[in-house]
Amino acid sequence: MKEIPIEYIKIPEDIDGIRKLHEEVVGRYMEKYESGTSKPILVKEIDRHNYILIDGKHRLEAKKRLKKYRRIDCEITDLDDRELYAKAVECNMEHGVRLSENEEIDVLKNLIEEGRTQEQMAKIFHISRSAIAMRIKRDPSLAKSQSDKIKLPTINELLLGKMGVEVAKLYDISKGRVSQIWGNFVNEITSDFNAGTTKEEIITNQSNKGINLTEEKINELIKEDLNKVILGDCLTEVPNLKDDSIDCVIIDPPYGIEYQSNFKNEKYDRIEKDNSEALDLLDKSITAFKPKLKKDSHIYIFTSWKVFGKVKPIIEKHFTVKNCLIWNKTNWSMGDLKGNYAEKYEMIIFAIQGNRKLLGEKRPVNVLDCSHTDNSKHPTEKPVELIKELIENSTKENEIILDCFAGSGSTLLASKELKRKWIGIEKDEEFYNICKRRLIENE
Fold this sequence. Notes:
Elements (H helix, E strand, L loop, with lengths): L1 E4 L3 E2 L2 H4 L6 H13 L5 E7 L2 E6 L1 H9 L5 E7 L6 H11 L6 H13 L4 H8 L3 H10 L1 H20 L4 H7 L4 H20 L4 H11 L5 H7 L6 E4 L2 H4 L8 E6 L25 H13 L3 E11 L4 H9 L3 E9 L16 E9 L13 E3 L14 H11 L5 E4 L6 H8 L3 E6 L2 H13 L2
Parallel strand pairs: 2-4, 3-5, 6-13, 7-8, 7-12, 9-11, 12-13
Antiparallel strand pairs: 1-5, 3-4, 8-10, 9-10
Helix pairs in contact: 2-3, 4-6, 5-8, 6-7, 7-8, 8-10, 9-10, 14-15, 16-17
């Protein structure tokens, strides 16, 4: 027991909100203090000039009003800070205090936020667990609070390998509820993955919510090795992909024209192997990815009129060429300003394997109008909106798209935004990093 100056005692906001002051109760305690019969209040010492009130709000107010008293008898507890609110509630219950319905809801909500089980709340309120369960069930806000509160720790315990029965007992919930929480979690991350989100990004998103999902665990839950960009040579990496798995290939390989973009203050270097080697590279890359395509699949290959006559026969060795699409860039390139026509378009060879049909209610035309990019991310950067049009014409949600000359990632980003699965391969580390950044930032 210790006498403490009244001004040293502070009432925390959460404890102050447990129960409103009632004038008749304050008056009753004023009479008791005058007769010397009131019991001490309960406080926790922070330092010799600061104390936190846990129980005795009406008694403290009574002493304040009796201005002749400057000190009050206190019982000091060393409870952990996390226990203070629950102790304050329990003391109120022991005094036989009746909370209003709103006060009771607020108290239960705070106890749920502290992570109290129904069994623990029942002990605090001095009632049965079934009575607590009924009160929570009766109020939708309490039911939601409890559901939200147990969700994260339940998932984290299961991710650590605990059995459902153990987790149900630990958090005082049914085994069926544990199964429901886990099922919802697995469905959530699977849906995100099916919508084109990378496993790396899913891990980050879940971590931001407080869920400890690891790379090892997500690979266990989602077996497919998709939605990723690989740093490496397509001729080395494509053979590692699963056979008969790709629905559509969209590639923008070197054209074989020794292209160098001049449309910047700082010129890009010439594109590697954008010469006679490009045609050999195209043939070898098609040979590599052909067995990875499904029996019925679509292929789009960007090219230039300058090498169209050489590129088309290479593609025809492997697939049926159906059309040559014209991308109207709605503006024209620089170059020989007085001695030649300005170039305003590029070509996209459309080929098929098997008998896959185009999608959409309206038959697409072979001239695609789409403004060019500023090539700020890559010297031959393609617009995401243009790629989206190709994707929507040839694939459905969750189908798989391959770009083994990923560049700055326009095809990958378009696939992700349209909820397709995707694989990108890029050998230049600078552009690989640009891909990764764009996919995370969706830019």
